[in-house]
Write a structure and sequence with these properties.
By secondary structure, the protein is an alpha/beta fold. The chain is 40% helix and 19% strand. Strand 7, helix 8 and strand 8 form a beta-alpha-beta unit.
């Protein structure tokens, strides 16, 4: 079955979804050594199935696996690379902690990471495209202790080479949308850092027949927009709603020229944005004539994992309702 994407105001997700109990329990059992990787994956499949069903129920066009197997957006990947070991718990913010990974040797690809989760999600998606979503090299390095490499850029390139193995396999198996998450880039909003990531992404994504997306959120993104425009990607996905759409005039000023993942619901609040509120955000974007309806992808600001399931689902439903009404208004239905 092939799902026909709309011509405009396509709806999608950034990646994560609230953890289902079976996935959370499997993560804990695996950490304690009670189950192996194969059993861990099998248990989590039911959680992935439920995520996909929620997306289908909401009506989302381009979906994800909900990142149900991922304890953390960095730890998950480095546990499946050579050269890393996982360290002690480190506080990120509030009461959120993660086990900061440590680079102790040359980093190389060693085993499958997310390919099986992605393929299973695709098998139950009723033909909807499933994004292949990875945490990017810049963020992995930024959230690691490096005890081996003298040059952090060399480490980034080795991580990029390891991730590319996984991406190439996904594209061979039919992945049409590949998203690289780089939230750490906005914490160092200077040209030099942006240029480093540009070169790393060229290494990781060149020659691949798929739509290439980079997600960046929550930081001084406006300071780096001029340097992002020549990145080797088709789309940037930005957080907008949480910052009251402050990026919009900067996109206009610097001549933004790519597809736009447009965050229209805030993932840090339990309040569900209304359909009219979401449509008003789109009108605000269109009024500035930055991108046309065909290049606008409506989605949440970031992943939905910290929200209750019913709130996350309702936010997605309203994004879809808004997109349907917008297509009708602009003649794309």
């Amino acid at each position: 079955m092939t799902y026909r994407l709309p011509k405009a105001f396509i709806t999608t997700v950034v990646g994560s979804y609230p953890k289902f109990p079976e996935a959370q329990e499997a993560i804990e059992k695996r950490k304690r050594g009670l189950i192996g990787e194969e059993e861990f994956r099998n248990i989590c499949r039911e959680a992935i199935r439920k995520v996909v069903q929620d997306y289908i129920t909401a009506g989302i066009d381009i979906i994800s696996d909900g990142e149900q197997t991922r304890e953390d957006m960095v730890v998950f990947f480095v546990e499946r690379m050579k050269g890393y070991k996982v360290g002690d718990w480190v506080r990120i913010f509030d009461n959120v902690y993660f086990r900061k990974p440590i680079v102790v040797d040359k980093v190389e690809y060693c085993c499958k990471m997310i390919i099986e989760d992605w393929e299973f999600a695709k098998s139950v998606s009723d033909g909807r495209p499933v994004k292949f979503i990875l945490t990017g090299p810049y963020t992995i390095v930024d959230w690691s202790f490096n005890l081996y490499y003298r040059d952090r850029v060399e480490l980034m390139f080795d991580i990029a080479k390891a991730l590319r193995v996984e991406i190439e396999e996904a594209v061979k198996r039919g992945a049409k949308f590949v998203q690289v998450d780089e939230p750490a880039l906005s914490t160092r909003p200077v040209k030099e850092e942006v240029e480093i990531l540009k070169d790393v992404l060229k290494e990781m994504l060149h020659g691949l027949d798929c739509k290439k997306i980079v997600h960046i959120c929550f930081g001084k993104i406006e300071k780096i927009i001029p340097y992002l425009l020549d990145y080797p990607v088709d789309q940037f996905d930005f957080e907008f709603k949480n910052s009251n759409f402050r990026l919009l005039p900067y996109l206009k000023e610097y001549g933004y020229n790519k597809e736009l993942g447009f965050g229209v619901v805030d993932v840090h609040t339990l309040r569900v944005e209304t359909v009219e509120e979401i449509k008003d955000a789109v009108y605000r974007l269109l009024k500035l004539d930055i991108v046309g309806p065909e290049k606008i992808y409506l989605d949440p600001d970031c992943g939905l994992k910290r929200l209750p399931r019913e709130i996350a689902l309702e936010k997605l439903r309203n994004i879809v309702k808004a997109s349907i009404e917008l297509r009708r208004e602009f003649g794309y239905d």
